[in-house]
Design brief:
Blueprint lengths: L1 H9 L2 H7 L1 E10 L2 E4 L4 E4 L5 E3 L5 E5 L6 E5 L6 E4 L5 E6 L10 E2 L5 E3 L7 E4 L1 H4 L17 E5 L7 E5 L2 E2 L3 E5 L2 E2 L18 E8 L13 E7 L6 E10 L3 E13 L3 E12 L15 E14 L4 E17 L16 E18 L5 E18 L2 E19 L6 E18 L2 E2 L2 E17 L2 E12 L3 E13 L4 E15 L13 E4 L3 E19 L2 E16 L1 E4 L6 E6 L4 E15 L2 E16 L2 E4 L6 E10 L5 E10 L2 E2 L11 E2 L2 E12 L2 E8 L34 E11 L2
Parallel strand pairs: 1-8, 15-18, 33-37
Antiparallel strand pairs: 1-2, 1-5, 3-4, 3-6, 6-7, 8-9, 10-11, 11-17, 12-13, 13-14, 15-16, 17-18, 19-20, 19-47, 20-21, 21-22, 22-23, 23-24, 24-25, 25-26, 26-27, 27-28, 27-29, 29-30, 30-31, 31-32, 32-34, 34-35, 35-38, 36-37, 38-39, 39-40, 39-41, 41-42, 42-45, 43-44, 45-46, 46-47
Length: 733
């Protein structure tokens, strides 16, 4: 159905809940063993809507927006009622009613889930996967993910960036609840703005996404879902500390204001780096001192008749201080003082999402909008950079099943983006305003559950760049119960904010050479994937193989190599492309031991200074091994991750004879978690081998002279870090 595809992309609760299904398996315990239990009655409490488990104990039942309590009943076994908030795969174990022991019900969270039914290939990273690491923010949520790389942008600010399909994070559309959020001035530090304990899940899709989501997705899309006010979480507390002096506290609370119709949540986050660390002895802080405070208030209303609305507001304040170890906040930026950086950020944002589904379930209308005000004042050495941004976004989506069988479906709508950015660099005013109304339509043909074809087209009318058209196509064919093939092709555009997205380059002696405030980037993306799901020795085995190619027609080139005293930011003059090939295998060789093996090859090239070169500071390959084991009843969980990072090319300006590449390196992380009835304690270590990039700050001894550069980063900047955390959780019954 068209709504299933739209809802996958939009993840809009009112529509999701109206259309998704809950799947799972029911097992019966007999003499210590667990066997499939056929004929179990599975139904929603207070309704006549139900199904019966099949011969393998499997079931699937549609979930509506008013259905949360799922009942399992079978003669000779204790009945069980469980709360289901978000559709997911369940494992239910029923015990005979002659036994005194309590019934054990476990929701099976597969951590990372790859759907075989969605048209666009999408990985869902659930709470179980997020808990495998400290996961203090979005930037730290991909340690066990084979598709997304996270690296430091430089060695002084603490900024991090993702890489997807071998491309920088600016080419991935970063959203929060399917609303554009981490863009513009939030590009550099935005990954630190989403606290891990606030997140419900993360969805990662590669290549061109649906035209419903806009025109900016080139390499892919990453969407973070925040915990909902009606999630059932009465109180959640998280405390974290590390040997490097990082402290963090998170508190979430939900309140049912009026029955189950109106609910609200309050989310609080406070974190900071309190210690100056210089493990490599170069005189620079390995991590900047910082303090961040956030508070968010969210509201949700539903009338259980197909209408739902959500509204919320978020406030963030952050202060960063880095540079040489003896730089103090009170010091005036001067060549007579130690080198320092200071970045102060104030940010307020709000959102409104409303949707309604018709009585016949064939038509749905959704309105999504958000507002952001962002201001930063900063200096890098003696270079001042001040900026502010005011942004509004709105998206109206209408979806309609054209026939009762939902073979043909159509959705379309309108979007509008207004972005007012004001920047000052080198005493130059870089103010600009962007207004982009757009219109889109998408057709879906689904003659069977095995075959889906989706084609979309949108047109956007930019006040600076004129009109541009974005076509996209997606194809899915499920050969049988074990094999799923997907193919996609589409174009993407993005307005490159030349300074806002590259201000970390100011952490060096060289000045930035640019002629434009912004430019329009354009690229085609093509992808194919093949997913295999089958049983090996009665255990689930999944093999995924995929290939993506990105070809740029226009691109912003960051040229670090042509000039010795300047970094040139200019339009592409030549070819630029990226190839990405990935294979990953997921298997459980023994009970409760999950194994992930992955390998990815990157081939990324760009014309720099008139010569087609390998993109600098980018690993040629990545290997990943993740082992996760939990004891019976999940009292203890052990997680180990090994990342193998291939070597890559160094920029010509820092390369020395016989050393034009950086070498391959490995990073190991581990964590052990002890679970209790209402919480857990976790102890872990990042970068167990204590590997760090040699000389991350070039010219560290004299940062006021030529040769100083803290932006040529390809590996870890921070060494071994041991952390300890505590989680406490109270849920509504």
């Amino acid at each position: 159905m068209i709504k299933q595809f739209l809802f996958l992309f939009m993840l809009f609760p009112v529509i999701i809940q109206a259309q998704q299904s809950v799947k799972g398996v029911v097992l019966g315990k007999d003499n210590g063993s667990e066997n499939p239990l056929p004929g179990v009655n599975v139904y929603w409490e207070g309704t006549t809507q139900g199904v019966v488990s099949d011969s393998n104990g499997a079931f699937e039942i549609r979930k509506g927006n008013r259905q949360h309590m799922l009942v399992f009943s079978f003669v000779g076994y204790n009945s069980q009622t469980i709360h289901v908030d978000e559709p997911d795969e369940l494992k239910v174990v029923l015990e005979p009613n002659l036994e005194i022991e309590e019934v054990t019900v476990v929701q099976k969270d597969r951590g990372t889930y790859l759907s075989a039914m969605s048209t666009i290939k999408m990985e869902r990273i659930g709470s179980a996967e997020l808990h495998k690491a400290a996961c203090c923010n979005l930037a730290e949520s991909f340690e066990t993910n084979p598709s997304v790389d996270v690296n430091y942008s430089d060695a002084v600010t603490g900024a991090k960036q993702i890489r997807l399909l071998g491309l920088d994070g600016v080419y991935s559309q970063l959203q929060v609840e399917n609303l554009p959020d981490l863009r513009g001035l939030a590009t550099t530090f935005g990954l630190n703005y989403i606290p891990g304990p606030w997140m419900e899940s993360i969805q990662v899709s590669k290549g061109a996404s649906s035209v419903v989501n806009g025109y900016e997705s080139i390499a892919g899309q990453i969407n973070a879902e925040i915990k909902k006010p009606d999630s059932g979480e009465k109180l959640f507390l998280n405390g974290y500390t590390s040997t490097h002096g990082r402290l963090e506290f998170n508190g979430n609370t939900n309140l049912k204001v009026y029955k189950d119709m109106i609910s609200t949540s309050l989310l609080v986050h406070a974190s900071g780096q309190t210690m100056r660390n210089d493990d490599n002895g170069d005189g620079f802080m390995d991590e900047p001192l910082y303090s961040q405070f956030q508070v968010s208030n969210r509201w949700k209303f539903t009338n259980y008749k197909g209408f739902m609305t959500q509204v919320g507001v978020n406030v963030l304040m952050e202060d960063r201080l880095g540079g040489q170890m003896d730089f103090e906040k009170e010091m005036t930026p001067s060549v007579n003082n130690p080198y320092g950086i200071s970045i102060k950020t104030n940010r307020v944002s709000g959102y409104l999402k409303s949707g309604i589904v018709s009585k016949d379930q064939r038509t749905a209308v959704a309105l999504l909008s958000n507002f952001t005000g962002h201001k930063t004042n900063s200096f890098y050495g003696i270079t001042d950079y001040d900026a502010s941004e005011t942004r509004f976004y709105g998206n109206l989506i209408i979806t309609r099943d054209l026939d009762e069988a939902s073979i043909h479906a159509l959705n379309g709508g309108f979007s509008f983006l207004h972005d007012d950015i004001r920047e000052s660099l080198y005493a130059t005013n870089l103010d600009r305003k962007e207004s982009v109304p757009g219109i889109f339509s998408e057709y879906t043909f689904k003659p069977s559950e095995r075959l889906t074809f989706m084609a979309g087209l949108r047109a956007d009318f930019h006040n600076i760049y004129g009109t541009f058209v974005t076509p996209r196509m997606h194809f899915r064919f499920k050969l049988n119960d074990h094999y799923t093939f997907r193919a996609n092709a589409g174009k993407g555009y993005r307005s490159a904010n030349i300074i806002a997205e590259n201000n970390y380059l100011l952490a060096g002696y060289r000045s930035l050479n640019f002629t434009d405030k912004s430019m329009l980037e354009e690229a085609w993306n093509y992808g194919v994937s093949f997913v295999q799901d089958y049983k090996l020795w009665e255990r689930d085995l999944q093999i995924n193989a995929e290939y993506f190619r990105t070809d740029f027609q226009s691109q912003l080139v960051v040229d670090r190599e042509t000039l010795a005293d300047e970094i040139i930011l200019s339009p592409l003059d030549g070819k630029s492309f990226a190839n990405s090939l990935q294979v990953d295998v997921r298997y459980q060789p023994i009970e409760r031991l999950d194994v992930l093996l992955a390998y990815r090859w990157n081939d990324t090239k760009q014309t720099i200074g008139g010569e087609l070169k390998e993109f600098p500071l980018n690993s040629r390959y990545k290997g990943l091994i993740n082992l996760n084991y939990y004891t019976n009843l999940k009292k203890w969980m052990f997680d180990y991750t090994l990342q193998l990072n291939g070597g890559g090319r160094l920029p010509d300006n820092i390369a020395t004879p016989g050393n034009t590449d950086f070498d391959p390196f490995t990073v190991m992380n581990a964590q052990v978690t002890r679970y209790f009835r209402n919480g857990s304690i976790y102890l872990g270590a990042e970068n167990l081998t204590n590997f760090t990039q040699p000389n991350p700050v070039l010219g560290a001894t004299n940062p006021w002279s030529p040769g100083f550069d803290a932006t040529n980063i390809w590996g870890p900047v921070v060494g071994r870090k041991i952390y300890l955390g505590v989680r406490f959780n109270l849920n509504y019954n």
